[in-house]
Amino acid sequence: MWYRLFYIIVIFSVVAAGCFKSGSDKNPEKNSEDQAGAPPEITFEQVYYDFGSIKQGEKVSYAFHFENTGGSPLIIEDAYASCGCTVPEYDTTPIQPGKKGHIEVIFDSAGRRGNQYKTVILKTNSPDNKHRLTIKASVLMN
Fold first, then answer.
1. d(CA 138, CA 53)
2. pTM
3. In the predicted structure, residue 30 carries a pLDDT above the cut 50
């Protein structure tokens, strides 16, 4: 009988000790994320580029460079252009904090003339999750 009572007291003590543990000790991985867990932030060197004058039918491209200035990995979830003549190319691997990346924007001037303004919208996992990049070209007839 006494050994059962002793057994119950030991079990109760172990359970109670587990319940009173500090929350910071329960999941050390989560705590390290909380300390460095600032959200990702994308910072571009520039968000506008002017190709100047180009000949109709030319394909031109420009790489917009950026850095993840936040505290967690940056993911570019999607990139889409305002027109089918403009194609964004980007890497889908996460950009670690402090690392750099780029988005290449390719513009095909076939069938275009005059001043052309095209935008690319990036969707990221940053708090301000949509970012706009703009290109301009003055397309000259052959």
1. 5
2. 0.73
3. no
133: helix, strand or coil: strand
| Mean pLDDT of the 71-99 span | 96
- Which residue has tokens 């060197």? 45
Burial label for 106, CB within 10 Å (0-12, 13-18, 19+), is middle
CA atoms of 112 and 55, how far apart (whole Å)? 10
Q: How many angstroms separate the CA atoms of 136 and 142, rounded?
A: 19
Closest CA to 42 of 78, 79, 71: 71
Tokens of 97: 């904090």
Helix (H) or strand (E) holding 74: none
Check whether 125 has a pLDDT greater than 80: yes
Q: How far apart are CA 131 and CA 92, in angstroms?
A: 16
